[in-house]
Fold this sequence. Notes:
Elements: H1 3-12, H2 15-29, H3 34-46, E1 59-65, H4 76-81, H5 94-104, E2 110-115, H6 124-132, E3 137-142, H7 151-154, E4 159-163, H8 169-176, H9 180-195, E5 200-206, H10 214-224, E6 228-233, H11 250-260, E7 268-270, H12 289-292, E8 293-296, E9 302-303
Parallel strand pairs: 1-2, 1-8, 2-3, 3-4, 4-5, 5-6, 6-7
Antiparallel strand pairs: 8-9
Amino acid sequence: MNLGLKRRIYTRLPTPMRRYARLAYYLISSPFGGKRRFNRFKYQISVNQKELINYIPPIFSIAINSSCNLRCPNCYFVLLGGEKAFEGGGMIKVEDFKAIIDRYGDHIEQVSLTGGEALGHPKLDELVRIVKDRGIRVMVSTNGVFIERKIDVLKEIDFINVSLDGYNYETFKKYRGGTPAEFDKILYGLDLMRQNNLKFGNSFVLSEENIQEVDLMLEFTRTTKPYLTLFNGINPHGCEDFTPLLASSEKVQEALTRITSRNDYPFDIELPVIFDDQSPDFAKSSCIQPWALSCFNDKGHMSYCCYIDHDP
């Protein structure tokens, strides 16, 4: 079935029925679909329902490099760690990475390579090949500065997310703390990926403080021509410099209305989570990440959430 048609049908279902629709789809589409399908089925019946799970979370996020060449003020590492955010950062060893994939590769569906700055890992090509040899989808998140030097291995990756946040050098410097030369490298890297027909997206972190700039971000993205533009809502961990996106904010509602009133975008758009903290459902809502995602650090240690300590 066409993906767009499936989405339209799914979004028109009453919320209580959606979980059962997903279960029915996985049973009908592949009743004997192997370990990954069976693992996905157990995920679907457990998410937000069971405290003890008997499956492998289908998505692995692995911080292959916990050091970074930028110091973005809205990065949660910086928000939590300050000036010491990347002290002691290292690169995951190929053998530790391979041990993770060898142990769980028959069950998982996607591996996201993150950081720090993932493209700073000197053996990125070996890590990508380990994942691809198991038939697993691989994604990478990058600040874009090292795209040119890693273009050959990027050709092997299913999706590349480039975190921009800024739409010109002034905003890049404000939100990413980079130099003019680094901004030029990112622009060149985006053009290089487009020339090579790579599937990539541009992402922006939004808060109450910069939501009014969303139109400028979209116009800038027209020039980079990505497959997807992704907007993330900030979780500032109590930092007074940034305010989460709230449904009660007039600025947020105005920006959302402007974005959704147009249908001429030459790329897909993924909108951010906007919290309705006045809703009676808000306090009862739970994050699905512990059911869906396992996070690994550069030592190969695992966590159920990227905001808590990893454990060997």
